[in-house]
Amino acid sequence: MAKQIQAIRGMNDILPSQTPLWQQLENSIRELTASYGYSEIRTPIVESTDLFKRSIGEVTDIVEKEMYTFDDRNGDSLTLRPEGTASTVRAGNQHGLLYNQEQRLWYMGQMFRHERPQKGRYRQFHQFGVEVYGIATPDIDAEVLLMSARLWQKMGLTEYVNLEINTLGDSEERATYREALVAYLEQHIDALDDDSKRRLHSNPLRVLDSKSESTQAVVDNAPKLIDFLGEETKAHFEGVCARLDAAGIQYKINPKLVRGLDYYNRTVFEWVTHSLGAQGTVLAGGRYDGLVAQLGGKPTPAVGFASGMERLVLLLEELQQAQTSAAVDVYVAAMGEPAAIQASLIAENIREQLPQLKVMTHCGGGNFKKQMKRADKSGAQVALILGEDELAAKQVVIKPLRNEQPQQTIPMDELAQYLSQYCQ
User: Fold this and answer.
1) Could you tell me where the DSSP H helices lie in 156-267?
2) Contact 343, 395 (CB under 8 A)
3) pLDDT in tens for each of the 424 residues of the chain?
4) Are strands 77-80 and 46-48 parallel, antiparallel or unpaired?
């Protein structure tokens, strides 16, 4: 017997029992983005490796350790996309969507990172994100935050997530702060963890969100970025906060929040939960005004967020917020070949007249008892039964499966009207 082939570690199947919850989440995302007037963009799974090195930053965990990178047959270095923003910017530049234009976009799809698989963190994962281009004012920062807050409302998760926000300032302000931060950290280098020592000169802001207790003890007394910000940057951040306050969105200003990607500036934010253990961030983003030019386009302001969908599914499961519906509303069974042929036509007629109903026709033969077991297993509310007698009389037996109501027989031509009232 041949050895069974297993899925690659960290790349998981989503089984039929799980897909209703995924569909619920996906539908919520589509409804949410449509309600704000955002348009969907779909980009390739494979991109040039340089795209991510230039956008994410070469001294990041993603580029250094996690990307799935390979040379194709032409010798070009390609990478399975680890996130969606860089691809969206690349597509916008390539197709002339960004310069002197406003674009409100969203995406959803698979991403890939080679990291140690754990609950809520996989090597192939699904991400959805929102990207806005061409608007520099704080009102759009607030809009994407309000959009994310509305997603939690739609999914019944508002009380289980908390918003943390910060501002990273502009590039010049950050450069000045960076010098002061490096000078301070160098005085305490022996107390830093190995990753922080490695990042000290290449990406020192990442030291601020180190998980090492000894490093955090040093960071607590480090210079604060807020003290290096100019009036324009402060006013922008205050404008974001004022809009959140007006909308009643609760938040915490976290001065250590820097995000893990190099391209962020000014506003950054994370929605976190304490319901998933260590994997607490469920949605994050911010402003990245320099990325479009960094990838070859004209200078264009931009802001957005992304969310790992596996973590949202886990959160819904943990909190039992999933709204599951029956896979089938009506199960059509028949005894005998002539009745089976007619049963198929009846099912098609129901689908034509009542497209909102989910109708399954029994296939594969079997006696009445077997067909009723299948009907019950399908989750259907009712079974429609057709035998030789019913076929001759042009009638159908309706057998309720989820309550104690008696079965009844009705004319075939009244079936659609009956089901429209029964299956609501």
Assistant:
1) 171-186, 194-199, 213-219, 231-247
2) no
3) 788 988 888 888 889 888 888 998 999 999 999 999 999 999 999 999 988 888 776 556 666 678 888 898 999 999 999 999 999 999 999 999 998 899 999 999 999 988 787 776 788 999 999 999 999 999 999 999 999 999 999 988 888 899 999 998 888 888 888 888 888 887 878 778 877 777 777 777 777 777 777 888 877 888 888 888 889 999 999 999 999 999 999 999 988 787 656 678 889 999 998 877 665 889 999 999 988 998 889 999 999 999 999 989 988 888 776 555 667 889 999 998 998 899 899 889 989 999 888 999 998 888 888 988 998 888 888 899 998 888 888 889 999 988 888 888 989 888 888 888 776 6
4) antiparallel
Residues contacting residue 19 through CB under 8 Å, at least 6 positions apart: none
Do residues 302 and 287 touch, judged by C-beta distance below 8 A?
A: yes
Closest CA to 260 of 223, 211, 225, 297: 211
CA distance 351 to 344: 11
- Amino acid letter, residue 423: C
For residues 267 and 167, is the Cβ–Cβ distance under 8 A? yes
Q: Strand 77-80: give its sheet, edge to edge.
A: 46-48, 77-80, 68-71
- Could you please report the per-residue DSSP string of 130-183? EEEES--SHHHHHHHHHHHHHHHHHHT-GGG-EEEEEE---HHHHHHHHHHHHH
Cβ atoms 371, 333 nearer than 8 A: yes
Contact 207, 260 (CB under 8 A): no
Separation between Cα atoms, residue 192 and residue 219, nearest integer Å: 9
Separation of alpha carbons 8 and 6, rounded Å: 6
Burial class for 292, CB neighbours closer than 10 Å (0-12, 13-18, 19+): buried
Answer yes or no: are the C-beta atoms of 98 and 297 closer than 8 Å.
yes
What is the CA angle 44-50-51, rounded to 5? 45
> Which long-range contacts link 288-293 to residues 24+ away (Cβ below 8 Å)?
288/85, 288/263, 288/264, 289/136, 289/265, 290/171, 290/263, 290/265, 291/55, 291/85, 291/86, 291/89, 291/263, 292/89, 292/92, 292/93, 292/98, 292/133
Structure tokens at 343: 């049963």
Contact 412, 346 (CB under 8 A): yes
